[in-house]
Please model this.
Amino acid sequence: MAKVRIYNFDPKTDGWKTFPDAPVKPIKIDQKQRGIREFDIPLTHYVKNGKTLCGQTEPEGTIFYNDVRNQCDKCRQGVREQTILARKALESNDESINVIDYKAAETDDHPETATVSH
Model:
């Protein structure tokens, strides 16, 4: 039997997003020959079904953005909790709470064809 994956989100609408006018966190990155440069990383929230896991409603103009250096702590904890629940549902073969249309998502998932551009 193949390794079963957990699909508890809709990849077209759910995920880590940044809001318009989100607070930013300056970070410094050593780019070797270019020297140390400073970049602003916006705060990101995990959005699922139009709401963040910390309780906010998703405003207009959000964009997908995932950077672990500046994530909402409550959303990060919410992702951990939903992963634990999904894992328990998977182990007990309870497909009703595990995923959103998981069979369709599984057919679209082809990690063996993924490529890296660098």
About this structure: The mean pLDDT is 79.
